[in-house]
Design goal:
This protein is about 45% helix and about 15% strand. With about 375 residues, the chain is of the alpha/beta class. Helix 10 packs across helix 13.
Length: about 375
């Protein structure tokens, strides 16, 4: 088969989606020595992928996603190569591409959370943008030969929302990176964070501040927990200092919530230094497609307090302490237990490491290859 992979998202710039695309291509190179692959990249990430398998070739497709260039020129480039099918790791399928394709859907946040609160656009332009997104996703899932979902929850969500047969959708879980680019002996008290702050006991959250991440409830519950228990703990939030974190800072100031420290995006070295000291990782998201951050924390030996959203129950299982992410009292009780119950903490740390190791990018790539094979009628 001749297979195209739209890898324009590949790399750290696109966060979870970029890592998924990168790991997929890297591991397909290792397991498939029969099929021919063309990997499409942008100028910004072209040098990030250097083929090691002679059956893999890369081609420049410098069309930014969600643009007219993507819609007009990407289909022309794809048609030129006459693929058996193309794998798009995101829903942004060019509407005018008429060839066969597979799509990966990571979540339905864009259609499940159609709120203006999650955008910096004015109401009119947000409405237009939302309708275009909605149409694009609808056409993608209806026209795709096969759909890959990153969790059973996401599969069920797609089936329900778009009224699709379950046999059209295959689940391939994401994974935590087992390879670290940082040596443990580099994690030391002399790091930048330790110099700038006097962090001793603290809870931590790592990720963006989009509304569905539920950070307002997190900081509010933290404030209540502090007053009830008189703990010396702080709450550390790590994420890109964007519009949503600025709004969260305003919320914290208006609510007069103390001991909340917000760091902009940190290097791996500093982040692992924080992980090594954290009392617990708190993840109260109201919607996820998979949920990598708590698994990453588990791999680092941090007990996790998570929301009881279905996907978190699926991915984390009994390796996390779950609570109702919309109930302040329930969250506060969770914080009290995960900090104060030493037996529970030891149990969660042990289970967490085991749980994180259940997922691997190699397994994801092998299962994706099986989907490819099924398209060709080999299975």
């Amino acid at each position: 088969m001749k297979i195209g992979i739209d890898a324009r998202f590949l790399g750290p710039e696109s966060k979870g989606l970029g890592r998924y695309t990168q790991k997929l291509v890297e591991h397909l190179e290792k397991i498939d020595h029969e099929n021919q692959y063309i990997i499409f990249l942008r100028k910004d990430n072209y040098d990030l992928f250097q083929p090691t398998n002679p059956n893999f070739k890369k081609i420049l497709a410098d069309y930014k996603w969600y643009t007219f260039a993507e819609q007009i020129f990407m289909p022309l480039l794809l048609h030129k190569h006459k693929f058996d099918f193309v794998h798009f790791p995101h829903f942004n399928i060019p509407i005018f591409y008429l060839g066969k394709f597979i799509i990966t859907i990571h979540d339905l946040i864009l259609v499940r959370f159609p709120t203006k609160k999650a955008t910096t656009l004015n109401k009119f332009f947000y409405t237009i943008k939302f309708l275009v997104y909605k149409l694009t996703i609808f056409l993608a899932v209806k026209r795709a030969m096969k759909i890959i979902a990153v969790s059973q929850f996401t599969k069920q969500d797609i089936c329900q929302y778009y009224n699709l047969p379950s046999e059209k959708i295959f689940v391939t879980h994401e994974a935590v990176d087992n390879e670290k680019n940082i040596k443990k002996d580099e994690i030391c008290a002399g790091d930048e964070v330790a110099k700038k702050t006097e962090l001793d006991k603290f809870l931590i959250y790592v990720g963006n501040a989009y509304p569905h991440k539920n950070l307002e409830k997190l900081v509010e519950a933290f404030g209540v927990w502090k007053k009830k228990t008189n703990h010396s703990h702080k709450l550390v939030l790590v994420g890109k200092d964007d519009y949503f974190y600025q709004k969260l800072k305003e919320y914290i100031k208006n609510k007069d919530i103390k001991d909340v420290i917000i760091f902009d995006t940190l290097s791996d070295r500093i982040l692992y230094n924080l992980y090594a000291k954290a009392s617990a990782f708190i993840f109260l998201s109201l919607y996820e497609g998979f949920g990598l951050p708590p698994l990453e924390a588990m791999q680092e030996g941090i007990p996790v307090l998570s929301s009881d959203h279905p996907v978190m129950l699926e991915i984390l299982g009994e390796s996390a302490l779950h609570c109702d992410g919309e109930n302040i009292d329930n969250i506060v009780r969770g914080m009290k237990r995960i900090v104060g119950d030493q037996n529970l903490r030891k149990e969660l740390i042990a289970k967490g490491r085991i749980q994180a190791n259940k997922y691997s990018w190699e397994k994801m790539a092998k299962e994706t290859f099986e989907v490819y094979d099924s398209v060709n009628g080999n299975r």
